[in-house]
Amino acid sequence: MAEARRRVGPKRDRIRPIIDRLAVEHADARIALNFANPLELLVSVMLSAQTTDVNVNRVTETLFRKYRRPEDYLAVPVEELERDIYATGFYRQKAKSLRGTMRMLVEEYGSEVPTDFDALLRLPGVARKTANVVAAERGDPQGIVVDTHVRRLSQRLGFTREEDPVKIERDLVKLVPRSDWARFPHLLIWHGRRVCDARRPACERCVVSDLCPSSRVG
Ligand code: SF4
User: Fold this and answer.
1) Which of 18, 96, 97, 131 could form a cystine bridge with 120, CB 3.0-4.6 A?
2) Which stretch of DSSP H or E encloses residue 85?
3) Same domain flag for 155 and 69
């Protein structure tokens, strides 16, 4: 690996061309959750824990017709909300988080989703990853979202040696230009899904193969 890292050169020189090439290759890379406003974005991201975006979209298609304002989530018995989000899994915990968050939105933020990152982090059940996704999608990224694809690709591309998502994010924010913080995870996620598979990376058709220390080509 050390030899491979020497071959491709320092990560500071590779990050720009890697982002640019992936941006061309995956010009359609965007968040896969469907939402029409900040509240729907926040709810979708909260529901997406431990399940797929496709599954969340299936549930929110009807959910968002019924629950339009934070008050709506508090107006029904918790069992009804649990039923409505059941298919996303972990429905008891998610319903509890949703109601806690909605109560705080109503009582402290005039029923609006706050734009301030620290305020987002205060919402019950909103962890750093959720706050990062919401902030990035609203055009004010405060960090870099690290999911399983971002972790795997960052390691393979030699951007980090860490395993812990918080430490990986710390490495990435030092390396990735701030103007790319929002789209960077989407590029890695889509590249991970389409090319750099967890078990069988398709290095022979990878556009950053010559810049990747883990490439199996050549
Ligand atoms: S060269 Fe292979 S390991 Fe490296 S990013 Fe491309 S597909 Fe993944």
Assistant:
1) 131
2) helix 78-85
3) no
Place of tokens 């059940």: 125
Measure 83 CA to ligand 1 centroid, in angstroms.
Answer: 42
Interval between CA 207 and ligand 1 midpoint (Å): 8
Distance 203 CA to ligand 1 centre (A): 5
- What gap in Å lies between CA 163 and CA 52, rounded to an integer? 22
Specify whether 140 is catalytic. no
pLDDT digits (tens, 9 = 90+) for 5-41: 888 999 999 999 999 999 999 999 999 999 999 999 9
CA-CA-CA-CA torsion sign (95, 54, 67, 84): negative
Per annotation, catalytic residue among 20, 72, 147, 171: 147
Asked if 21 and 208 count as a contact pair (C-beta separation under 8 A), the reply is yes
Q: Are residues 44 and 129 in the same domain?
A: yes
Collapsed DSSP state (helix, strand, coil) of residue 48: coil
Report d(CA 185, CA 101) in Å as an integer.
26
Q: Is residue 126 part of a domain?
A: yes
63, with CB counted inside 10 A (0-12, 13-18, 19+), is buried
What digits encode the pLDDT tens for the residues 41-96?
A: 999 999 999 999 999 999 999 999 999 999 999 999 999 999 999 999 999 999 99
174 is catalytic: no
Q: Is 176 in the pocket of ligand 1 (CB under 6 A)?
A: no
